[in-house]
Structures are given as structure tokens and as C-alpha cells.
Amino acid sequence: VRFQSCDENKKIHFGSSEPEDFRVGEDGVVYAERSFQLSAEPTEFVVSAQDKETQEEWQMRVKLTPEPAFTGASEKDQKKIEDIIFPWQQYKHSSPLKRQKRDWVIPPINLPENSRGPFPQELVRIRSDRDKSLSLRYSVTGPGADQPPTGIFIINPISGQLSVTKPLDREQIASFHLRAHAVDVNGNQVENPIDIVINVIDMNDNRPEFLHQVWNGTVPEGSKPGTYVMTVTAIDADDPNAQNGMLRYRILSQAPSSPSPNMFTINNETGDIITVAAGLDREKVQQYTLIIQATDMEGNPTYGLSNTATAVITVTDINDNPPEFTAMTFYGEVPENRVDVIVANLTVTDKDQPHTPAWNAMYRMTGGDPTGRFTILTDPNSNDGLVTVVKPIDFETNRMFVLTVAAENQVPLAKGIQHPPQSTATVSITVIDVNESPYFVPNPKLVRQEEGLLAGSVLTTFTAQDPDRYMQQTSLRYSKLSDPANWLKIDPVNGQITTTAVLDRESIYVQNNMYNATFLASDNGIPPMSGTGTLQIHLLDINDNAPQVNPKEATTCETLQPNAINITAIDPDIDPNAGPFAFELPDTPASIKRNWTIIRISGDHAQLSLRIRFLEAGIYDVPIVITDSGNPHASSTSVLKVKVCQCDINGDCTDVDRMVGAGLGTGAIIAILLCIIILL
């Protein structure tokens, strides 16, 4: 039934005089509340519309008759078709004195979808009030007529009967807007076109459809009643403003039903799922499966269409269970001096979800390890605590450790949990004695000794110690590992070191006055172990080397001015057995002092020069006596080969002098000069 209120804001309540048989929805649609057989006589009842605020009421009588089957009867035997007369007049004001313009606005035509015909089905007859004086032709235009989708509506051009040719589907097209035209036989427009609106009345021909067939949600364990979980949503292709598209939700089943068969409820209009009972415990039930039903017709189980979906609710973990050690005492052992080895595995149980912060265990030492020799790591896969040695342990000092340890989760326990936050246990660790390597004391050992110590002399005793005081090692044996100059030997029993050659500080094996040798000490344990020690010999210098002249060769020119040769001394010894040096010429042969003179410039340098102005060109051996400052002094006579030549203006030897210097005789030199003259 259609009810038009002058005030669109009024809240109208519809009622039926026969509520047991008929119900009127909020949109005015009348529904049968039960199935019954209609007789030939019309069934009558009254539909009322009441203003909820003013209680004003309007009534309309409804007659319900069976729909006649199509028998092909003639037009006059069928129901009368309403005529729409050209022009359609609509008075928008109640005053009869106001003249209105001819208007082609008519009320919409309501046509139910999914009609079974027969087709074409006549809707209305359109005619002009001039059809008595003129021969007219009628046509209709618009989507559904001459525009896509074409041919749904047709009009008889002579009679003006408008018909529908097929069933309509409101979910595809909810309304059609057509225009009716009236022209004379010459095609001249007789009337202005009239607008025809055909509304497709919704039928409940679509079931609700969930957006997802399976919905997934989560809820923390221990949640209080009223905790929001998730929202499921279904849609209905029918009119959402009518009961055909108004959905209601409900839960059909819950699995499992522990601890209560009604752990959840659903808002029947919004689809929100919330908890209604306490007792969610992930350790007992990890997942719930709900079958959700959506029904249209506002959830009417008799007339509504339904569909179902599955809601899977996972109960998420909170830290409501602390880790608990599987034993009060754990045992382990470790060989002494070993580090980075696991000595004990601590195992715990935790009922929370594995590999989450509420399950992951953290271990710490609470006592028994004041020097920090141990640490506890967590195995990420097994959650075990791995007691690991991080500092060497000496069996001779500590033979056993008793540790106290604690385990707790990465996150604190949830509020209200009546459990201690951590679990404690004891770890007993036994240290195993092993055969350790002997060690020299001190290492390295420094010995100061003057060079020149003769072979066979006792230098020192270099011995080692065995740390295994509780094992039955009876003796240590010594041997030489490294002796670059092969100067030493060691007694294999008592470690006494003697020389096998004279110690020389100036040897190439001595660096910065230091000579290094390495020795080995081995025990007779099982297995045998050995240790090395370094003997450092600091050799003190003695004056065992005489100084030598440097350079060994020199050149001087015969000039009017003195031409000196700078010389110095080289002494492998060091202070005070080296410079300052004394330089002098020997008394014999007499020609040395007659031809040469030497002058000391400093403690390390002197100058040698010709005493006479002319000395035949040639190479001369000039002996020079050099004495160091050692106590006692050491001296030597070194020979300096001096080449004497005639020099050019630049101070360089002439070519003839070079030939002489090269060892050519006078005849050979004359022959070479003659050849040069002939060539010129």
C-alpha cells in the first residue's frame, strides 16, 4: 500500500486489522504471516497508518483476490487498463481560482520484478483529449523503449496501450524514465511529450551473500566478556531500504563448545562478534569455529532468505604461564682451561605459544660465579639454557662450581596471574683435570753477558714448571728449539745452558746487542705436553775490534794549493770502545812522512794531503795508523790507495793521467797520441 505524508519527517507506524494473518512492514509492504488458500470471495482487512507523535491515524481497506490465470480471453474480459488522458493536469494549489498550465506529469507506475506474464503485459493506455477530432499516432522513447535496452516497453501507435514485453529485474535497472508522444498523421506534434516513470518493485529474489566465505579473527586469551573480536559482513542485492534487503545475523553453532557453548555473540544488525563469557584459555582451546547466518526480511525465519559463512577465531597467547625448570638440579663437567664450551643444558617447560615473547626464556646467574667464568645462552629452537664457559678454569684452583640460576620470559606475566614470575634451579659443574703444558719461569729470561765468552762456559740455567700438581708427571726434559748462531746447548735434565762457541756481539745474528734462543720443556704425561721459553742474551761490548780507515781509495791532484783527502774510521765496537780516534802516519818507510801529511779534524775525521808540490802521477799505498779510545786501546794500520794525477782547471784528472791511472805505459800513451794526430 502507498501512503504519502504531507510532512516527510513524520514517523509512521503501519498496522493490520488481522495481525495473525497479515503484517505491514515499515515500507508499507504487506506480508502474509501464514500460508492459506484464497477463496473466490475477496479477503478484506484494514491497513492503518498512525503518527507516532500525534497518534493521528489513517485507514485504508485492502481487498485480496486470487490472480486470474491467463486464458487468452478477449480484452473486454480482462481487467480494465487505466487511461492517461492528454493532457495530465496536476494542481499544486488547492485554490480553484488559480489557472494551471497543461502539464504531462503523472504518478510513477509501479511494476513488480520477475513477473511471469503473460507478455506483452499491458500497463496503461495513453490518449489525447483531441483524439475525437484528430487521427493521432502514439509513440514512446527512452532507455527501455527505443534506447538500450530496447524493446522492453512498446506502445500501440493507434490505441496508445503501453505494454511491457519481458520480466524486469530491479537489481539490473530499478526504474525506467520514458517519454510518450502524440502526433497527427502528418507527424505534427499535437501535445507536449509526457514523462512516464516506471519503478520496478523489489521482490525478495536474492539471498544474502557474505563478502568472504571464511572470516578470520583473533582474541587474546583471558579476555573479559564484551571484548570485540571481529565483524562479518553480508550484502543483499535486493532493495536495502526494504525488508527484502534488511539483514540480520545470528550464530548457528560454535565448535568446540568448551568451556561454554556460547562463548561469543553477534550484533544482529552490524555483524560485530564479541565475547559474552569468560574462560578463554589458549592452552586449552586454541581456535573456535562459528557458523554465522545472515537472513534478509529483517531475520524473519519464515519468509527470509538465508546464507551462511564460517568465522574462525584464533585465541592469541598472553604470558599467563612462566617457564618452569624440569629439574631442581642440573649437572655438567668441563675440562680445565677450556673456554666457549657448553657444560650443561638447562631445560624448561612453558605452556604458552612457542617462539613468542611469552614463551622465549631468558636465563641469568644468581649465585656461585663471583668471577664471571660462566654465561647462559638461550637456544632459540629448543628454548634450552646453554651454560657456557667464558673464562679458563684451573683444576688446581677450583674443582667444582655450584651455580644458582633463574629463568623468566622476555615479557612480564600478565596482570592477575597467580604464579611467581621466574623459576630457579641449581647447576653442579665438575672441573676435570687435564695434562697441561709446562711453562718456563720467567719467560722470556734475560741474561747480561760480555761478548767473547769462551765455548764450554756455563751461561745460565733455564727451567720450567709443570702446573699439574696432582698428576703423576715424574720429570721434565729440555731441548733446544731455536739457536740461529748455534752458540748454545741445554742439559736435557737440569736445564743448564752452556756455550758451544765464542759469543760475538758484532755477529749478524745479534740485533741491538740482543741474541734470542728458544728452548722446549716436555713432560711425560698422557698425552705428552710441552712448552717453550725464550732466552734473551744481552751481549756487552768489549774492545775486540780495531778501527779501519774509510774510504779505502781516494784521488788527489797536483796543484799549487793544498788538495786534502777527507778520511774517517770504522769500528764495529761501540762506546767507549770506539771513537774518538787518533790518526797518524807510520815512521817507515820514510817516504810516507816525506810525501804526505795527516791532520786530525775531529774525534772521527782527519785530512790526508801531499806534503810536496810535485809527485809523479800514479797510485800510491799510504799506510795510516788509527787508534780507538778503548781500555786497553786497539789500533790497526790501514792502507789507503791514493791516485795522484795532474788536474785541469776544473780539478779533474787529465786524459793522460787517466791512461796512466788505467795502467798504460809511456810508449803506449805516445802511440795513441800519434794515431790521433794522423787522423786529424
Structure commentary:
- This protein is mainly β and 680 residues long.
- The protein has six domains: 12-64, Cadherins (Immunoglobulin-like, Sandwich); 81-91 and 100-201, Immunoglobulin-like, CATH 2.60.40.60; 209-316, Sandwich (Immunoglobulin-like), CATH 2.60.40.60; 324-432, Cadherins (Immunoglobulin-like, Sandwich); 439-540, Immunoglobulin-like (Sandwich); 548-661, Immunoglobulin-like (Sandwich).
- Helix content is 4%, strand content 41%.
- It is built from three helices and 48 strands.
- The strands form 15 sheets. It has a four-stranded mixed beta sheet with strand order 6-8-11-10, with no helix packed on it.
- The model is unreliable at 69-79, 88-104 and 659-666 (pLDDT under 50).
Write a brief structural summary.
With 680 residues, the chain is mainly beta. The protein is 4% helix and 41% strand. The longest helix is centred in the C-terminal third of the chain and has 14 residues, at 666-679.
How many strand elements? 48
Mean pLDDT: 85
End-to-end distance: 149 Å
CATH superfamily of the largest domain: Cadherins
Structure classification? mainly beta
User: Which consecutive residue ranges, at least 5 long each, have pLDDT under 50?
Assistant: 69-79, 88-104, 659-666
Q: Which fold name fills CATH's third level, the topology of the largest domain?
A: Immunoglobulin-like
The helicity comes to: under 10%
Please state roughly what percent of the residues sit in beta strands, choosing from under 5%, 5-15%, 15-25%, 25-35%, 35-45% or over 45%. 35-45%
Integer tally of domains: 6
The neighbouring-strand order within the major sheet is: 6-8-11-10
Largest sheet: 4 strands, mixed
Total helical segments: 3
> How large is the radius of gyration?
63 Å
Q: Name the shape in a single word.
A: elongated
CATH class of the largest domain: Mainly Beta
The name of the CATH architecture of the largest domain is Sandwich
